[in-house]
Amino acid sequence: MVEELLTAAVATGAAGVVYLSAAARVVKQYERGVVFRLGRLYGEARQPGFTVIVPFVDRLHKVNLQIVTMPVPAQEGITRDNVTVRVDAVVYFKVVDAAAALVNVEDYRFAVSQMAQTSLRSIIGKSDLDDLLSDREKLNQGLELMIDSPAVGWGVQIDRVEIKDVSLPDTMKRSMARQAEADRERRARIINADAEFQASKKLAEAAQQMADTPSALQLRLLQTIVAVSAEKNSTLVLPFPVELLRFLERAAQPPAQQERALEDPGPQTGRGEGLAATVDGDKDRNRPPETDRPVPDFGRLATDTNTNTGLGTGSGSGPAPTPVPAPAPPATPDA
C-alpha cells in the first residue's frame, strides 16, 4: 500500500513537472507575448517576465518591440523635371501594438517594405532633381508621412526615413559639373570686376590727393625705387625729366654756343621732340665736314650740246651760234 502511494506521488509529481514545463513561458524585456486560446485572441499582451499558459490550448506568439532597420531597395523613377534617377533609402520603425501587428496584417515587415518602395517611387515623381539633391530633409518628412499613414492600423510606428543615395546618369553628372563651373566662373568675374571698381575709386582718390600735394608724387617715386632696389636686381631704372638732360647738355657746350643757344632757343617742342632734336644735333656736330665740290653749269652744258649737234636754241631770235672748227690731225713726221 505504501509503495503504491509512493508510486502515485512520483507519477503525479512527474506529471506536474511535465505540465509546468509545457505551460511555462518567459517573455524578454524587449518582447510582448500575445496569447491565442483555441484560435481567438485572449486577454492583453503578456508583459516581460515569467508567464504560464494552458498547454495544448493556448498559443503564445512573441513580438519584438525593438526598432527595426530596413533598407529600401533602389527605385528608379523620373523626376518632375524629366530626369531619370535611382534612389535608395532606409526605414526605421518599431511595433507599438503587438496584437494589431499579428492580427491586422499577415507580415508587417513585408508590408512596411512594400509600402516604403511604393512611397519612394511616388516621392521621386513629385519632386525636382534639385530637391532630391539639396532639400532631402523635406523629402524625408514627406516620405515618413506617406509610410506612416497606413502603418498606424498595423500597430507599427515609423520612427524615421532617410534617403541614402541618389544615382544620376553620367551625362547628367557632366552637365551639372559644367553648370557648377560656369556659375563659379560667373561669380569669380563679378568679384574681380567689383575689386577693379573699388581699386579704381581708390586710385582716383589717390590721384586727386597727389594733384593737391605734388610732393606726394615724389615720395611715391622714392618709395617705388626703394621697393625695386630691395630685390636682388642688377638693373635699376630711374626716370629723369628731359629738362634735366637739356641742362646738362648746355653745361657741356662752349660759352659761345651757350650764349647763341640762349639768344635763339629755337622752336618750342614737347619733351619727346626736344630729346629727339638734341640727339639729331649731336649727330650733326659729330659728322665730318663735306669737301667743296664745283657746281656744274647746266646752261652752258646745254649750249655746248646744241652747238655740236647743229640744233637751234629757240625760234630764230638772237645770234646764231659760232661753229667750232674740228681739230686738225697731227702731223706725220718725214721719213
List keywords for this structure.
335 residues; alpha+beta; 11 helices; disordered C terminus
Model description:
The protein is α+β, with helices and mostly antiparallel strands and 335 residues long. The protein has eleven helices and eight strands. It has a three-stranded antiparallel beta sheet. The chain has a three-stranded antiparallel beta sheet with strand order 6-7-8. Strands 1-4 form a two-stranded antiparallel sheet. A hairpin with a 5-residue loop joins strand 6 and strand 7. Helix 6 packs across helix 7 and helix 8 packs parallel to helix 10. The C terminus is likely disordered.
Give a count of the beta strands, DSSP E runs of length 2 or more: 8
Low-confidence runs (pLDDT<50, min 5 residues)? 269-293, 295-324, 331-335
Largest sheet: 3 strands, antiparallel
Broad shape: rod-shaped
Overall mean pLDDT: 77
Proportion of residues in extended strands: 15-25%
As laid out across the biggest beta sheet, the strand order is 3-2-5
Radius of gyration: 59 Å
Percent of residues in helices comes to 40-55%
Question: Could you say which structural class the secondary elements and strand pairing correspond to?
Answer: alpha+beta
Provide the succession of SSEs: HEEEEEEEHHHHEHHHHHH
- End-to-end span in angstroms? 212 Å
Q: Helix tally? A: 11
